[in-house]
Specification:
With 883 residues, the protein is α+β, with helices and mostly antiparallel strands. The chain contains 20 helices and 35 strands. The N and C termini lie far apart (102 Å).
Amino acid sequence: MGEQTAETYTRRPVITARAAATFEPVGRSVASARAFVRDTLQGWGHPDIIDDAVVLTSELVTNAVVHAGTAADVLCMRTGTGVRVEVADRYPEREVPLQSSARRIGGVDREGGRGLLLCAALATRWGVEYTPTHKQVWFQLDLPDRPAGTRSAGPALPTEALPLTDPRVRVAVVQLDRTGSITAWNDDAAALFGFAADQVTGKPLTDFAAWPHTPGTSTGIAEALRLSRWEGSYGIRGADGRITPVYASHLRVRDNEGAPSTVCLLVREEERAVLQSLQRSPAPDSGAADRTTADPFEVFIGSPAPDDLDGLLQRTVERARDMLDGDAAYLLLATDDETELEVRASTGLPSARQRFARVPVEAGTGRYGSARMPAVHEDLAVIPGAVPLLADTGMRSVVTVPLKVEGRLTGSLGVAAEAPGRYSNEEALRLQFAADRIALAVERARLNELERLRRGSLSFLVEASDLLAGTLDRDQTLALMAQMTVPTLATWCAVYTVADPASEPELSYVLHEDEDRIDGLKTLLGKLAPPDPVPTPGARVWAAPSEAAHASALRGSLRSLGLADSTDHPAAPTTSLATAAAVGGETVVLPLVARNRVIGMLTLGKPTDDHFRQEILELAEDLSRRAALALDNSRLYSERTAISQSLQRSLLPPELLHVPGVEVDVIYRAAGEGNEVGGDFYDLFPIRDGAYGFAIGDVCGTGPEAAAVTGLARHALRLLAREGYGGPAVLERLNAAILDEGARSRFLTLLYGELRPQEDGSAILKVVCAGHPLPLRLRQDGTVEAAADPQPLLGVMEDLELYEQTVTLEPGDVLLCVTDGVTERREGTRMLGDDGLTDLLTTCTGLTAGAVAARVLRAVERFAAEPASDDMAILTMRVPELQ
């Protein structure tokens, strides 16, 4: 047997008493184990260590019967110096960290992970021992160090420091039977209180006792008389009706026949030192109040109290359960409007299912239907559904009390037991007293958490707004909406869009934090009818995904076992158990409303047995409002872009015309995002048999306004040329049309010409260059020359006198026509210019028309690091060499 201990024994101490018990692996065994250890130590006369022993036993037995799922063997042994408690379970293969290991044992506030930490903090010694069938955790609590043979002792004091008494100290001895009735009354009792023995014999002591404590908030007299030992102050009403304050020491005993009775020793309050036992001293460096008089609930919470809300709530429910020997406990916090309570911590209950579940504050009429008043349900089986939170949990009795701060309901604390009739109004008052002590700390921690959440929410919303504002692409907006919610707000997300009020919602985007679940989730949602596009703000629950997932998974399981209904089609798709678990929790739908119209729905989901917190839903609602506006903006932008691009495409030739005997190539680049056509344009079209018109122009400016003049110019050129007008007449009439546009008119540079391929392999061109960069002619020998003279631009003067020039392209010659986006390409003070373009063209001898255009474009792009800010068109024509 291996052993790792906090301290190694060199010699086993002598065991003077032993008690053992075995507890089954059920939740109620924890309370039974606590009661066993408490009763054992009380019977041995060691009340000083009961609190620590019960807390440690509770944690270790919880680890065994709840988390390990095995029976727990509890052994208590008393030695001359202390008490050793051993808790063994039957799951030895579980790893328990060594004390010497640097690895963290576990979170101090995690239920089931605190046992060893508490041992290290509270026990004198502790350790872990293994056998092939058991794992045993033990701890030892040393008894207070007192001189041999004494129960308690104090230091020697000077005479003036000794307590005062009457010359004759009287100690009343009163004995009670099991019912609390007086059976013996000595002479000192008669002298102190004025009653003879025959006057009080057979009467209950409660007829004479004046108990000063508020019933239920501390130990009552009836409860004190049932304890094995009790000390404290109260009053006895004498024969003259006056109350004599006394200090009492009660001892519970039994006679030879086993009948219990209580012996009470009473002295005057001012003579309490005669009977008073020395109280347990606090740790020298703790500065804490006396543990025998401090409230155990407060002591546990403050040793030390967790900084975070969840840790404080979890420790509160565990301490409340221990205080009332319950099997389960839970704590709910009220919403801001005090209409609902939200489960925030529980022990002994299926916490994964209950966490963040909500119940109404006013669940019904009468006192027991309101969470604002203490309530005791002796048997939940008599009134099924009286406490919906405990349905199907096996709990039969429950006591609940409100948490209030300055009269305002802030929460509710409940303790439940599997046995009926466990709690009465006294327990309710005790629990209420504890709740009052912790309510302010809980509210302070809750407000701190809310402040952190609000700060985090504001940061989240600012970042979300920046991301959503950074794109006008619809698909990217949908993806951002989902990625911002998963996993920050939800486990999975689906976005539905509504094209128009008459359309059905369409599933547009699906995301799950586990990428392997996305396809299954998308398939499942695709088979469901989408949620109704209701414009009502706020989140509403949508049960269809969870119900469909579980039903489909069940059909799949039955089918795999051969138990499927014969009416169920064997090829019907089913949902995997993993997908069903992934979407089996709460699902909520938030409308996406923009400009008073529902444009979609944001659907958020949780895995099985999980629920949304109200703070998360409020944050999701804020996000949905921002996302709706961003989605609508992207929709409007997409529609406008589609319309703009459709109109712009109509301004360009549908395809590049093939001219027999001449190679033609065009490269076109429009400046500005989303623009396909700008102020530059080109055209190549047939005029009549053997004759083709070509044009390349530049309207002042860029964008849609310039594109409007582009459309006017291109269509006017085609119409006029086909009417038989020559080049100068075509441009003069186009000039008049531009001027007719008035304030919308823009000046235009234009190179227009007619191309006639010849039978000898050459081509004759008649061109007019109206304010446009001059066309360049590249001969076969590499020389470059301008192919036209400059003439006035269009859209400025009414009366133009234009003329056309004739150019003959011999086989192998190239004609290059560009807009000023090419020649005016800049980087700082440098500009490509006409000379730079001429030099570039001299290197293009022997290249095809397409290769020449590509080389010019590449040179323009490389001329400067910044992207081009002007529209650009390149038109090249080449007469092939004769074969």
